[in-house]
Fold this protein.
Amino acid sequence: MAGILLDPIPFQTREAERLEPLAILLEAALQPDGIEIEFVFLPEGRRFRTTRAAQRWSPVRPVKTSPAPRPAGLSLTLNFGKSSLLEGTLTLLRRKHRPWTDAEHVRFNILRSLVAQHLATLAELDTTLSSRVWLVTAIEHSSSAVLVLDSRGSILFANDRADDLLSRQTEEGLSVITEDGRTTPLLSVLIRLAAMVSPPERLPLVISNGRAVEVSMHLSASPDDPAARVCVVTLTEREALSVSDVRLYLEKRGISSREAEVVDGVLRGLRNAEIARELFICEYTVKDHLKRVFAKLGVSSRGGLVQALRAVPAGPPAPSRVS
């Protein structure tokens, strides 16, 4: 299935609409009784055929063998192809009572290279556009946030989940917590990673609201134009960390019940004033609790606290969240 998804069969658009201008040209110039296109789709090694009669194209169908040889003088054939995509032939057909004239052979030879080039271009266009539609549809329905960035960091595509995550960065000030406890906007981190020659394939990031995001990165570069490379970024967001997840760790480090309540507020992304209102204490008391927590855990900031707790191995679940 992967091969079919990434390499759709060419000339399968509704009523072969992209072949229609070419067919009209050939019918005007040479008046064939029928047109046949047969090709081997190289990614799969399968043979396909479509025919045109009475101004209508038949659906592209797989075939096992080539057609039987035509009677001499009743067909005009040219070869066309696209490297690694397909190799095919176009044949103009005539009935027995209308053999091709010398003048028509000359006209066909004049058109031969143009028609072959046009068919190769159409095949590549069909495949590229169909792949794009299918892949965008799949990305839109992904459960993860997906971004496509160019080498300059410009966003070329973002699905709905990515849009939501970036909107929250703006509204909630979501940032990535670095190892030294500093914070950097999430998008800035992604842009910097996308610009790297060899970005990490997977990288866990701790977010300032207590959540963590696992980033997967894949580079896609054009062999003819390395500057045209793009980076596909997938972000899978983990659930918010709670005090119950690290209860035993906090107890072993001497964190009191009240201090754990303050830690819980930090993990839920609350500001000091909000924690104070929730616990019915003053903001200065919240700051004092945090200073003691920082000292006990060996960190120096709220970001460092979240990062340290994210690194704690999961313990047995607690019966309820501290509130």
About this structure: The first strand starts at residue 34 and ends at 41. Residues 10 and 126 are 5 Å apart (CA to CA).
